[in-house]
C-alpha cells in the first residue's frame, strides 16, 4: 500500500488558451487531513475534478488510491467519497430515497452513520432534497459521503455558505472520520480557523501554481514577519530572498518572509534600520502573505488614505 | 477530568502550543496535581474539535518535558514533580524570554520598576504556594 493516497506529477489543464492548473506535483499522505487553499479561480476545483476523473488533464498524470485518474476502477471508486462544490443532490428524491439509491453502490454502507449525521442536521427522512436548507443540503451530502466509510474523502469547499453551527458540525464529522485509522480527507476551504482546527497538512495554489505543500506546523514555522524602523522614511523594499509581502508606512517597513536564509538576513541588515522586531503571525496572515500580490506594497486602506478618499 | 481546555484558532499561537501552555500553567499553579488524569488524545480531539495529531503533538511535548506520562492503555497522567533540567539549562531556556520582555517593555516606554511591578502582580495572581517546587 502506497504511503500516498493522491499523487500527481506535472499535472496540467488548459481551458482554451487559459492555464487552470500548471505542472502541479502533489503528494497527499495516507491518514492526513489535507487542506487545499487558494483564492477563487486559482484552480482548486479544476484540480479536484481531475482527481475525481471528471476532467481529463491536458498533460501530466494523477493517481488516486493507486489508480490513474482517467481510469478509476469501480472497486476503487467505492473506497472514495466525493462532496462536490455547492452540495448538488438529486432534487426530486427524498432523504430516504437518496439513502437507498446511494447505498446500492457501496458495499460498506453504514446506515448508523447516515442516520446519526442526518439527525444532527435535523433532517426528516421524508424531506425532499429540493425543499431543505443550504446547511441541510451540506449535511445530507456529508451523511451520504460518511456512510460509505470512505478511505478517501474529497470535499470541494464544503463549508461554503454554512452558518457557524452547521460548520462546526461539519468539522465534527471530519474529526469523526479520523477515528478510522489510515483514512484521509482532502478538502478545499477559505475558512482558515477551520483549517487550523482540523487539518494537519496544507497546500496553497496561487494562480494555477502549487506554492506550498507541507504539514501545517512546518508552514507556520517557515513564514515570519519583521518590522524595521528607520530614522527617516522607510526605503522601498528591495529584492530580499524569500520576500512574500511588504508594507511601508511612514518610517516603518514590514516584511513577511518565507524560508529565511543567511542571504535574507544579510539583505535585511544592509537596509540600515535603527531597530527591528519580529511579530507573531496567525495562519491567516501567513496565507494572505502567500496569496497577495507581491508587487503591491500598500493595502487598500492605505491607498484610500493617501488618495484622501477616506480620512 | 475536570480540567477545561480552551483553544482559539486564529491566534498567533498554534493550537498544540495553546494546549501545552495551559497544562504547564495549570501544573505550575497547582490547578492540576500529580496523579491527575488528562483526557486521552482521541477524547480531547473530539471534545475540542481539533485534529488528533495536534493533541498528540501537545502531549508529546509535555511528556518530553516530564510533565505528563502516557501509559499505554491506561491514560495520561500528571507526573510527580522532578527536576529534569539543570539550573544552567533552566537559565538558558528562560533568558531569551526575559530579554524579549525587557526589550519590548523598555521600547514601549516602561521604567524598570514598572516592569518588575507588573511581573510581580501577574505572579501574585497565580495561586500562591500551590506551584511545583521545580518551577
Protein model, in words:
- The complex is a heterodimer of chains A (311) and B (135).
- By secondary structure, chain A is of the alpha/beta class.
- Chain A contains 11 helices and 14 strands.
- A 6-stranded mixed sheet of chain A has the order 6-7-8-3-9-10, with helices on both faces. A 4-stranded antiparallel sheet of chain A has the order 2-1-4-5, covered by helices on one side. Chain A has a 4-stranded antiparallel sheet with strand order 12-13-11-14.
- In chain A, a hairpin with a 2-residue loop joins strand 12 (243-249) and strand 13 (252-258).
- In chain A, helix 4 (111-120) runs antiparallel to helix 5 (134-147) and helix 5 (134-147) runs parallel beside helix 6.
- Chain A is elongated and about 70 Å long.
- The mean pLDDT of chain A is 91.
- Chain B is mainly alpha-helical.
- In chain B, 52% of the residues lie in helices and 7% in strands.
- Chain B has helices spanning 15-28, 41-48, 52-64, 87-107, 112-125; strands at residues 37-38, 68-71, 75-78.
- In chain B, a hairpin with a 3-residue loop joins strand 2 and strand 3.
- In chain B, helix 2 crosses helix 3.
- Classes of the chains: A alpha/beta (311), B mainly alpha (135).
- Chains A and B meet through helix 6, helix 7 and strand 14 of A and helix 2, helix 3 and helix 4 of B.
Blueprint (SSEs and pairs):
The complex is a heterodimer of chains A (311) and B (135).
Chain A: E1 4-15, E2 18-29, E3 33-38, H1 44-51, E4 59-64, E5 67-68, H2 74-77, E6 80-83, H3 95-103, H4 111-120, H5 134-147, E7 152-155, H6 164-177, E8 184-188, H7 192-198, E9 201-206, E10 209-215, H8 216-222, E11 223-229, E12 243-249, E13 252-258, H9 262-269, E14 275-279, H10 283-291, H11 300-306
Chain B: H1 15-28, E1 37-38, H2 41-48, H3 52-64, E2 68-71, E3 75-78, H4 87-107, H5 112-125
Antiparallel strand pairs in B: 1-3, 2-3
Helix pairs in contact in B: 1-3, 2-3
Amino acid at each position: 500500500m502506497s504511503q500516498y493516497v493522491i499523487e500527481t506529477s506535472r499535472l496540467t489543464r488548459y481551458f482554451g488558451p487559459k492555464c487552470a492548473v500548471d505542472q502541479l506535483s502533489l503528494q497527499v499522505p495516507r491518514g492526513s487531513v489535507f487542506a487545499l487553499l487558494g483564492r477563487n479561480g486559482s484552480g482548486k476545483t479544476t484540480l479536484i475534478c481531475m482527481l475525481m476523473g471528471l476532467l481529463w488533464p491536458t498533460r501530466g498524470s494523477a493517481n488516486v488510491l493507486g489508480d490513474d485518474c482517467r481510469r478509476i476502477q469501480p472497486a476503487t471508486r467505492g473506497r472514495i467519497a466525493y462532496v462536490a462544490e455547492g452540495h448538488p443532490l438529486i432534487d426530486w428524491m427524498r432523504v430516504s430515497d437518496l439513502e437507498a439509491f446511494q447505498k446500492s453502490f457501496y458495499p460498506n454502507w453504514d446506515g448508523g452513520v447516515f442516520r446519526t449525521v442526518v439527525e444532527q442536521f435535523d433532517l426528516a427522512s421524508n424531506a425532499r432534497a429540493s425543499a431543505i436548507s443550504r446547511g441541510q443540503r451540506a449535511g445530507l451530502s456529508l451523511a451520504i459521503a460518511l456512510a460509505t466509510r470512505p478511505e478517501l474523502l474529497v470535499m470541494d469547499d464544503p463549508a461554503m455558505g454554512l452558518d457557524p453551527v452547521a460548520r462546526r458540525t461539519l468539522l465534527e464529522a471530519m474529526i469523526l472520520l479520523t477515528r478510522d485509522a489510515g483514512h484521509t480527507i482532502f478538502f478545499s476551504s477559505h475558512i482558515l480557523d477551520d483549517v487550523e482546527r482540523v487539518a494537519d497538512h496544507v497546500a496553497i495554489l496561487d494562480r494555477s501554481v502549487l506554492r506550498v505543500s507541507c504539514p501545517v506546523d512546518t508552514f507556520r514555522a517557515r513564514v515570519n514577519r519583521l518590522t524595521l524602523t528607520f530614522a527617516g522614511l522607510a526605503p522601498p523594499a528591495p529584492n530580499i530572498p524569500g520576500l512574500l509581502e511588504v508594507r511601508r508606512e511612514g518610517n516603518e517597513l514590514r516584511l513577511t518572509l518565507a524560508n529565511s536564509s543567511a542571504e535574507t538576513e544579510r539583505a535585511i541588515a544592509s537596509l540600515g534600520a535603527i531597530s527591528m522586531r519580529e511579530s507573531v503571525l496567525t495562519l491567516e496572515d501567513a496565507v494572505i502573505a502567500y496569496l497577495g500580490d507581491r508587487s503591491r506594497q500598500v493595502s487598500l486602506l492605505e491607498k484610500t488614505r493617501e488618495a484622501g478618499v477616506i480620512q | 477530568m475536570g480540567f477545561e481546555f480552551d483553544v482559539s484558532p486564529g491566534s498567533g499561537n498554534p493550537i498544540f502550543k495553546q494546549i501545552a501552555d495551559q497544562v504547564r500553567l495549570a501544573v505550575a499553579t497547582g490547578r492540576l496535581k500529580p496523579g491527575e488524569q488528562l483526557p486521552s488524545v482521541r477524547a480531547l480531539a473530539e471534545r475540542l474539535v481539533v485534529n488528533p495529531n495536534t493533541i498528540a503533538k501537545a502531549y508529546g511535548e509535555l511528556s518530553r518535558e516530564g510533565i505528563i506520562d502516557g501509559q499505554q492503555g491506561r491514560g495520561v497522567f500528571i507526573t510527580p514533580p522532578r527536576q529534569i533540567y539543570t539550573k544552567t539549562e533552566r537559565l538558558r531556556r528562560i533568558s531569551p524570554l526575559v530579554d524579549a520582555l525587557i526589550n519590548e517593555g523598555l521600547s514601549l516606554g516602561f521604567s524598570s520598576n514598572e516592569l518588575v511591578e507588573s511581573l510581580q502582580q501577574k505572579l501574585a495572581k497565580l495561586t500562591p504556594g500551590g506551584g511545583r517546587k521545580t518551577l
